[in-house]
Amino acid sequence: MGKTYERIDGRLRAFIERQHIFFTATAPLDGDGTVNLSPKGGSGSFAVVDERTVAYLDFAGSSAETVAHLRENGRITLMWCAFQGPPNIVRVHGRGEAVFRDDPRFPGLLGHFPDVDPALHGLRAVIVVTAERVRDSCGCAVPFMTYDEDRPLHASRFRREDDESLNRYFEKKDHIATSIGGLPGLPLPLPAMPAPVTE
User: Fold this and answer.
1) Separation of alpha carbons 25 and 27, rounded Å
2) pTM for this structure?
3) Is 130 strand, coil or helix?
4) Can you list the alpha helix ranges (DSSP code H) found in 73-195?
5) What are phi and psi of 20, to 5 degrees?
6) Residues 151-195 pLDDT 10s
7) Is 154 helix (H, G, I), strand (E, B) or coil?
8) Alpha-carbon gap, residue 107 to 24, rounded angstroms
């Protein structure tokens, strides 16, 4: 039986922080627009910021549908499934924002991801989600699957890129600066990576 929670803490927080993969769903306001569903992974690339806020790193890729939808309307749902242990599904429904490299908040947000070197993955933005509704459900039909390790392919592909070559890569893609439905996507040229925050 599903339950609604007031905040992301305790057992709920521990569950989502243990998962190796989660999914994000967004959609444009246009009723005929393309709904987007994306898997997100990479150890250390997700963080619970506080009891109502989560964030994840938006790495280089061949499209920017999530970014475009968030820029238009902010609606997003995140979902985690238990592929090991007791069955469980957790969804966070909320409002999301893409915080880009030239945003003053960007360096501070990176502090929530101490185990990730952003230079290895062509980091484009930090997606910050404010939870409006948090629910779980049984997940009894989710199969058992075993996590082996993160794939090294993304890092090996993008670690050799600098900002200039990343911009060239993004400019060649049809749906980076503009979404499938024609919405503004990733602002280009990509701003330079800010200096890390030091204590």
Assistant:
1) 7
2) 0.95
3) strand
4) 106-110, 153-158, 163-172
5) -95, -10
6) 999 999 999 999 999 999 999 999 999 999 999 999 999 999 887
7) helix
8) 23
